[in-house]
Write a structure and sequence with these properties.
alpha/beta; single chain; 2 domains; 340 residues; oxidoreductase activity; Gfo/Idh/MocA_domain; 8-stranded mixed β-sheet; Rossmann fold; Dihydrodipicolinate Reductase, domain 2
C-alpha cells in the first residue's frame, strides 16, 4: 500500500483576485505573508484605527491601501474578496457588511460564535449570490487531500476511530479575545474547532457528540474532552485545552491500516501510512518551513471557485460550517450555568 500523490493545485497558478483584509491582527499578517509569491494580491487593509492599518500595510502589504474603518474597506472598488480576520464575536457584523457591498467573503474560523449567526452569514451570501467560505485552511492542505484520497479508496479498510487533540497555553496570559465572554473566547472555537472539523471530514459528518470539560473564572471554556460519532457508527475521541501544551497529533484508524499525522496535524506536517502490524508502509514528509504559508491553499480555492462562477466550496461546504457550530453548542451547553 502506498500514499497517492496530492492533487492540490499550485497556488501560484490560481486566477488572481484582489483581496481586502478586514482586520490588522496576527492572522491577517499571516495571510498577507502566505499570499506573497502567489497570484493573489492584497490591495487593501482595513482597521478601526487608520494608523494601525497604515503600519500593517508598511510591514506586511506594501502598496496596499489603508482604510481607517471597515465600511470604506468593503466599499473599495478595487477589492474582489474580503478576508474577515476579526474576532469570532465580530464575524456576523463584518461578513454581512462585506456581503452587502457585493464582495466575496472568506470568514476566518470559526465562522461565528453560534450556529444561528453562521446561518445568517450563509443565508445572506446565498441571497446576494457571492462566494462565501469558512477559512478552515486545514482542509485545503496537500496532506489532507492525500488523506481524502486514502479514505475514498478504502485503503484503511473500515475506519473505526479518529483521535485528535489541539491544546496551546494561551490562557490566562494570552490574548484577551480568548479570555473574554464578550469576544466569544474559550478553547473550543479557537483550538478545538480543528480536531472537530478533522473528525467530521473523516467520519463523513457528525451525528452525535458528548463531552466533559470546565470553564474559566470568567465563564469561557478552558478545556474539553469530547467524543463524536459519524453516520457509519465510527467515532472520534478529541480534546482541547487553552491552558496546556499537548502533542496536537491525529490518527485515522481502520481495520487494514491507519494514518498517523505528526504534531500540528492541522498545518503542513508529516503523515504516515501504517499497516496493521505497525510497520510504516509509506510516508509523506511535511515541510516545517511552510506552517501558516499553507493559508495560500485556501486562498487559491477561493480564487478557483470564484473564477468558475461558484458560490461555495465542496471541500468546506457552508452547511458543514453551520453544523460544526451546532455540535460546539451541544458540547458547551452543559458546561454553561443555567440562566435564571
Amino acid at each position: 500500500m502506498r500514499l497517492p500523490p496530492a492533487r492540490t493545485p499550485d497556488p501560484a497558478s490560481a486566477p488572481s483576485l484582489r483581496w481586502g483584509l478586514l482586520g490588522a491582527g496576527w492572522i491577517a499578517s499571516e495571510m498577507a505573508y502566505a499570499l506573497r509569491g502567489t497570484s493573489q494580491q492584497v490591495v487593501a487593509v482595513g482597521s478601526r484605527d487608520l494608523r494601525r492599518a497604515q503600519e500593517f500595510v508598511a510591514d506586511h502589504a506594501p502598496g496596499a491601501r489603508a482604510h481607517g474603518d471597515y465600511a470604506t474597506l468593503v466599499a473599495d472598488p478595487q477589492v474582489d474578496v474580503v478576508y474577515i480576520a476579526s474576532p469570532h464575536s465580530e464575524h456576523l457584523e463584518h461578513a454581512l457588511l462585506a456581503i452587502a457591498a457585493g464582495k466575496h467573503v472568506l470568514v476566518e474560523k470559526a465562522m461565528a460564535p453560534t450556529a444561528g449567526e453562521a446561518a445568517q452569514i450563509v443565508a445572506a451570501a446565498r441571497a446576494a449570490e457571492v462566494f462565501c467560505m469558512e477559512a478552515m485552511w486545514t482542509r485545503f492542505l496537500p496532506h489532507i487531500d492525500v488523506m481524502r484520497q486514502v479514505l475514498d479508496a478504502g485503503i484503511l479498510g473500515e475506519v473505526s476511530t479518529v483521535l485528535a487533540d489541539h491544546s496551546i497555553p494561551l490562557w490566562p496570559d494570552g490574548p484577551e479575545r480568548l479570555a473574554s465572554p464578550d469576544l466569544a473566547g474559550g478553547a473550543m472555537l479557537d483550538l478545538g474547532i480543528y480536531p472537530l472539523s478533522f473528525a467530521s471530514l473523516v467520519l463523513g459528518g457528525i451525528s452525535s457528540a458528548a463531552g466533559l470539560g470546565s470553564l474559566t473564572d470568567r465563564g469561557v471554556d478552558r478545556r474539553l474532552a469530547f467524543v463524536v460519532q459519524g453516520p457509519t457508527g465510527a467515532v472520534g475521541s478529541l480534546a482541547t485545552d487553552m491552558s496546556v501544551s499537548s502533542p496536537t497529533t491525529a490518527s485515522v484508524n481502520g481495520t487494514r491500516a491507519r494514518l498517523e499525522l505528526d504534531t500540528m496535524f492541522y498545518q503542513p506536517t508529516t503523515m504516515r501510512l501504517v499497516g496493521a502490524d505497525g510497520g510504516v508502509l509509506d510516508e509523506m514528509v511535511g515541510d516545517p518551513i511552510e506552517q501558516h504559508r499553507g493559508l495560500r491553499h485556501e486562498a487559491a480555492e477561493v480564487a478557483l471557485r470564484v473564477a468558475a462562477g461558484e458560490s461555495e466550496s465542496p471541500v468546506m461546504p457552508l452547511d458543514e460550517s453551520v453544523r460544526l457550530l451546532e455540535v460546539v453548542e451541544e458540547l458547551l451547553g452543559p458546561l454553561r450555568p443555567a440562566r435564571p
